[in-house]
Amino acid sequence: MLTKSLKVQFVLQGQQAGSMIQFMSFYIILRLTHKQLCDLVIKAGHALLPYLRQTLIATSLPLACVSNALNKPKPLNLDVSLPSFHDIGWSLARLLYLFNIQLERNVAT
């Protein structure tokens, strides 16, 4: 009787140890990848810092938008035309007709 309980206890301790080893391995991997990710973000920030500083200085100068070709608006060359009054009247008449047809259908049911 005593030997069976000891065997069960050893099996449970072995399972607990195995799960603890898995947890510790996952924790170590997570810590290493987190550190590498932080280092990568810091390196990217250091690489972008001179360009960001130059951009902030250039845009804060008076009349910077006049001298900077990147900030000038570009024409889109869109051909915009308004519809004639006849077209607007026809569209409103068609809308009223469709509304009346739908109203008649709803009343008829």
Short description:
The protein has 109 residues and is mostly helical.
SSE diagram, text form:
Blueprint: H1 2-60, H2 64-67, H3 85-108
Give the termini separation. 84 Å
Note the overall shape.
Answer: flat
- Tell me the strand percentage band: under 5%
Helix content: over 70%
The helix tally amounts to 3
Biggest β-sheet strands, sense, barrel = none
Low-confidence blocks of residues: none
The H-and-E topology, N to C, reads as HHH
What is the subunit organization of this protein?
Answer: single chain
SSE class? mainly alpha
What is the arithmetic mean of pLDDT? 75
Using only C-alpha atoms, the radius of gyration works out to 37 Å
The total strand number stands at 0
